[in-house]
Amino acid sequence: EEPASSSGAASPEASATAPATIASSPVSPAPAKCNGIDPSEVDSALAAFVGSTDEMQMDAFSAIFSDKAINPYHRDALLLLSFFCKQSLKDVPPPPNDQRAIRSKKISLELVYAMLQHCGPVCRSSKVFIQVLKKVAVVSLIKNSVSPIQKIFTTSIGIFGALLQHFKENLRAEIGICIEQVFLRILESGNSSYLHKHRVLQVFYQLCTDATTALELFLNFDCDVDEKNIFERMIDCLSKIAQGKYTSLEHSNLIQPQQEQELKVLALKALVTLMGSIVDWARRMTEEKPPTTIGDAQVKADADSDGEDDTKSNSTLTSAATGVVSAVSPATSSVVDNRQRKMQLQVGVNKFNMKPKRGIEYLKQHSFISDDPHDVSELFRKGDMGFDKTAIGDYLGEDKPYNKAVLYGLVDGCDFRGQELDVSLRGFLSMFRLPGEAQKIDRMMEKFAEKYALDNPGVFENADCAFVLSFSLIMLQTDLHNENIRNRMTKDEFVRNNRGINNGADLPREYLEKLYDGVQNNPISLKEDEEAKHRLETQAAQSASQKHDLFVRETESMVQRSQEILQTKGGKISVYVAARSVEHIRPLFEVACWPYLATLAVLLEMSDDNAGTIELCVEGFKHCIRIAARFDMDTERDAFVSSLAKFTYLITLKEMKQKNIECIKALLNIGMFEGNNLGPSWHYVLTCLSQLERYELIGSHRKQDFTFFRTEDTDGLSTTSPSQSFSRTNSMGSKNTESTKWRAHGLGVSALVALGADDRNKECARQVELVNSESIVAQIDSAQIERLFNKSTQLSATAIVHFVTQLARVSKEELDLVEQPRIFSLQKLVEVADYNMARARLDWQKIWRVLAKHFVEVASHPNKDIGMYGIDSLRQLSSKFLDKEELANFQFQAEFLAPFENIMVNCPGVSRDVKEYVVNIIAWMVENKKHNIKSGWKTVFHIVRAAALENHEPIEKTAFEIVETILDSNQEVLVETFVDGVQALLAFGQSKSNMKISQKAIKHLLQAADKLAEKTKELLQQKGEAAQEADEAADPQGMKEATSVDASRHPAEQWLHILRGLSSLISDLRREVRSDALSGLFECLQKHGSSAFDQDTWRMVFNSVIKPLFDDIHHQLQDQRKQEGAAGGAPQAAPEGTAASWAAQMGRATCLQALTSLVRLFSTHLESLSFLLDDVLKIVRSCITHDNEAVARIGVEGLKQLLKLTGTSMSEGSWLKVTDCVKQLFAGSMPVKLMTVEANASGEAQLPFRRDDVVVQCIVQLLLIDMLQETITQHYEHIPPAGVMALLDALQSSFEFAQDFNQRIELRQTLKRMGFIREMKQLPGLLKQEREALSCSLKVLFQVQADARMLEGNFASKGTERLMRLCTLVLRNYVNKERILQEQADAPVGDQAAEGSVAAQDREAATVEIEREVLGLVPIISDVVMRGLRDLEPEQFSRYAPDLFPLLCELVIVNSREVREKVREVMLRQVGPRFGVPYEEQPPDAEACQAAETGS
């Protein structure tokens, strides 16, 4: 065969004795012939050859290959290998050893090693060759690896290395057995010698140098559910050896301290080498398979073995191995799934050990077992799954059907055929620990006896015999091997106890004695118990000979156990998993990271002067951090980085040693070359950098940051350190003796640890700090800090965000030290931002969000100077950013200036000095950078608005100057950011610090309205032109586009901001501002309404501006009314400058001015606002129905003015709306609460209503009646007939209610007694309302009679009927009241005196009321009724004459001369001509003279 390349060379002896022909023999062209050999035939021949001492077996073994016509060179190699292996299996005689036998064994092993080391591809691919290795070579390897002879086990371990190097794919199970059952047990044993441990550690070290082998060891065993966690156990073992956990007293007589140190160093070296080889392997995999990246350039990696320049991210490594970005290969996914599956199984086992029932349920849920009890039985039978034997025994002993089924399945699965009872019992009891309850044991033994009897018929007569004898053996085990029992059971007693158990017959005595001897010599016990016993013996052994004897026993156990496992797994076919993807590293590191962390941390903590150990630990930290970082393992990465940072001693107060300096260097190295993958772990690196810079300042005797930001006592509060009594100087070279507070960072948590009050402790601390600073200055180049920050430009888009985030976090922790703040990180933030400003806008946007938040926090710092410093840094960055051109429709500038806005708006803790500085910065930007500002104008207006709300005159004055500068230099800015500009002006209008600024702001608002009107006109013109063009082209699509011009924002949206703002200023407490705002609001509507508003805009203005305006006025007046009511009705002067003061002094005037302006606006734009009549009437109605008398009067007056100005122009439909509104007003203001009082109620009772409310309603009724009289007089011919009838209905209802109330004398007397209108002498009454409503109704009805329009429909008949009813009612009522008064006047005086005093008073009051009513009816009858009848047409009067004539006759005898004269005129005018008496019309002068005489 051709010689194969080898990484290792044979030992000198092996090289001298190895035949050269094996390495240089020609290659056979037909290796396939080996496939024709039957493997079972080879196994049989090998077993016979190895197990026999007859040399003739060699010929028989050779004949197998001869018959198959195998290649002769290949056959010779197989025969030689088999022979040498057989020779190596021979036992060495006990001391004194036969040196010839030892040499023979040694030479055989060396020859085997040489053959394996130099074999070529033919042998490696030969199934027969592999079969020989499995059946013979591995057995020899296991047996000789535990040999006490150094040369033998050394060569054997070399053979293992050769097998691992060349045949690991075919010897998967065998390699696992060797590592698990031999090498690891040698390392874990307390009885193995230094040489054994050292040689095994060398094997593991060689294994760790090959990352592929280590990865494949993990993949094939730790990721296989059916295998043990060999890799995890190996790492754990190496970790414990490196930490010295296996070097307790049990090794004191075998291993010397120097040897112990060598073992620790070798174990640590193996661990570090493994991580280093994995890092290097990942780098090579990345280089061999370059990733397919999208959008990001691949970062080149240096070929340095340290891997320090390898800055590839985890995604790059992963994609390199798979060839697809962010894709997971199926093989890797399978590995991860298998690992996860194995971890789930372990969780189930642990649950079972704690509570069997829950464990079984968990295993079922995760499909490890089914509901079939036999699955559970098979799981228990494996024996190496980690199940607790005690828990298994308790579970099997439960008297439940399922548990019994599991027990029966476990027993039925055993094969007891041909076995002795004690052997079968041992095998059965090895699967669990017998429970303590006799009933459980009985059930188990009963099933065992049944199975044994079935498998071995004829041994016992029945199963009862096996049952009883099994119990006897268990009892014998306890009796013979329990230390607490003194009188042991003898053999005769055991025989005697078991007489007659075989169906009444005795078992042979020899058989029973044999069982007795078996139990006595080989106790029935669990493997776990034997191991525990062995550990106790190991700990108790003191001499080297005892240790040697124990190790010999251990090696025998190792060989036996290994051979048993080999036989068990020999027939199984296993697939070897090769490591071909870097993705396999992640699950491996998840297993290994925590032992690594514990080992490195412990050793680094314990090692102060051992440079080699320190170097290995630091290197291990670097390797682990690289792996965790590149695979985005956040928890693991943070743990390692934080631990390394802790050992720098930069964040604690301890004296630094060389190891701490090395840790600082390592941390700087990690930051330099692993920045793309550190993520949040940057916090630990940057924290150490911050402290490193502080030590640099101390070491170079420069001032620290806090000396430049000292705070002074302000407002009686001191923010300086209480220890400032110490002397201090300001010179550069002097030492600062001020007490210092130190920062302690533990796992990212910052705290302040104050030094004790003892001056001696403080001095010691200063000395430690000074020594540390000198060490740092001497060994750490300060330029590395700057290089690290400069290299931030090379970080990826994601990494730079992490970097800036953590730097801001460190800066916050620095600034949190209020007494001694530092600004190092804040300065570096500004520098990093400057360095990275050239990044893509989207990447820079993410960076700026972090910076912006931090700058806002800095501005809120209790130390004003620090806040100013932070704002100045922000100004520098903003100025540089504004120099960059911004394209249209981007918002980068707005976001960049957002921190200034947050400082002004969302930070209540910011001092006014800082805010004033912010405003000054904005003023400077507007003055010097206004040509570069685009989207930033929005933020500028937000800032000046916040400044206006500060109510601080210097800030407000500067901010207003900014606004005026903008408006004077570039008014288009206001158009583009209209809403924000208007909001800013409104804020200035609301400012209370300077009234002139408020008035100027209102003027600017009106100018903004002019600009908006121009813009709106242009927009409407564009819509009209587009619609016209589309109409001419008959293009429906064009029409659609024309109607959608700027449809996203309706013009009313912008108008509302101005109008709402002006409306809000109307409630200002300052008269000048309020007047300007109210005038400006309606002036704006008057000026621009017709040209710039469409119907939608007008409707939105009414709903969003005018209605809320009146609502606010009404509510404030309502609140004033409530306050007056609470004060007992007595008006009290409200405090000046309050809303109550405004309502008391200016509320009514404002309401009158507002309503008057609204009426004028509506009348001016009646044509375009007619659709809003309902809304206007609602506003008027809300005023009239207000419970404040002044507002109600204003409302009625407003309605009167509205009708006066628009009556001639309103349409019929509008008049109907008005008349309906009037009718509702009459109904709503009717004082119906007067009727709720019970007549004759006690005078002590309370009124069931508020007096003022009812009084206001009464006044409103009179005002409405008066308004109707004037309106009807002016606009009767414009009011439609239906409207006239509605008004008559309203007057009729008012008249009838008043008449009804006035007639209830007793009710009115009761109201008088209860205090209603107490100040009046007369009884409460509605006489005026009755008279005025009646008078107005009659006038309208008489006017209706002459109206030709009433002839349409049935209005005329209704009017005539109502007129006659009212006339009849009035005349009859007057006549009756006259008669009553006449009767009372004619009544004898004695009759009146006979009545009681109370009744007399009531009678007198009633009489007075009748007199008042009669006097009130006189003008109505004379001036209205009689005049109306006189002026009727003769035909009309003729129709009414039959009803009216009797009443006219009654009027002839009334007391009133005026009435009689008016009746005379009616008779002369209407009745006389019917009898031929001509009527002579008296001249007006004559009538006037007559009236004067009558009056006199």
What does this structure look like?
This protein is mainly alpha-helical and about 1500 residues long. Helices cover about 70% and strands about 0% of the residues. It has 67 helices and 2 strands. A two-stranded antiparallel ribbon has the order 1-2. The radius of gyration is 56 Å and the shape is elongated. The relative contact order is 0.03.
Descriptors:
disordered C terminus, two-stranded antiparallel sheet, single chain, disordered N terminus, 67 helices, 1496 residues, elongated, mainly alpha
Q: What's the short version?
A:
With 1496 residues, this protein is mostly helical. It is built from 67 helices and two strands.
- Low-pLDDT runs: 1-35, 291-328, 712-757, 1038-1048, 1126-1131, 1136-1143, 1484-1496
Distance between the termini: 160 Å
Gross morphology is: elongated
Q: Residue share in helices?
A: 55-70%
Biggest β-sheet: strands ordered side by side in the sheet: 1-2
> How many helical elements?
67
Overall strand count: 2
Characterize the biggest β-sheet. Answer: 2 strands, antiparallel
Supply Rg.
56 Å
Mean pLDDT: 78
Task: Give the structural class.
Answer: mainly alpha
Proportion of β residues? under 5%
Question: How do the helices and strands line up, and which of them pair or pack?
Answer:
Blueprint: H1 12-17, H2 21-24, H3 39-51, H4 56-67, H5 72-88, H6 99-118, H7 121-125, H8 127-145, H9 150-166, H10 172-188, H11 194-209, H12 211-222, H13 230-243, H14 257-288, H15 314-322, H16 330-354, H17 356-365, H18 373-382, H19 389-396, H20 401-412, H21 421-429, H22 438-455, H23 463-481, H24 491-497, H25 509-521, H26 527-540, H27 544-569, H28 585-606, H29 611-630, H30 634-646, H31 658-673, H32 675-678, H33 682-699, E1 741-746, E2 749-754, H34 759-779, H35 783-790, H36 797-815, H37 824-835, H38 841-859, H39 864-882, H40 892-896, H41 898-905, H42 912-928, H43 936-948, H44 953-969, H45 972-976, H46 978-990, H47 995-1032, H48 1036-1043, H49 1051-1065, H50 1071-1092, H51 1095-1126, H52 1139-1145, H53 1147-1164, H54 1166-1169, H55 1173-1184, H56 1189-1206, H57 1212-1228, H58 1251-1275, H59 1281-1303, H60 1305-1313, H61 1327-1345, H62 1355-1386, H63 1389-1394, H64 1397-1430, H65 1434-1451, H66 1457-1471, H67 1484-1495
Antiparallel strand pairs: 1-2
Helix pairs in contact: 3-4, 3-8, 4-5, 5-6, 5-8, 6-9, 8-9, 8-10, 9-11, 10-11, 10-13, 10-27, 11-14, 12-14, 13-14, 13-28, 14-15, 14-28, 14-29, 16-17, 18-20, 20-22, 22-23, 23-25, 24-25, 28-29, 28-30, 29-30, 29-31, 31-33, 33-34, 33-36, 36-37, 36-38, 37-39, 38-39, 38-41, 39-42, 41-43, 42-43, ...
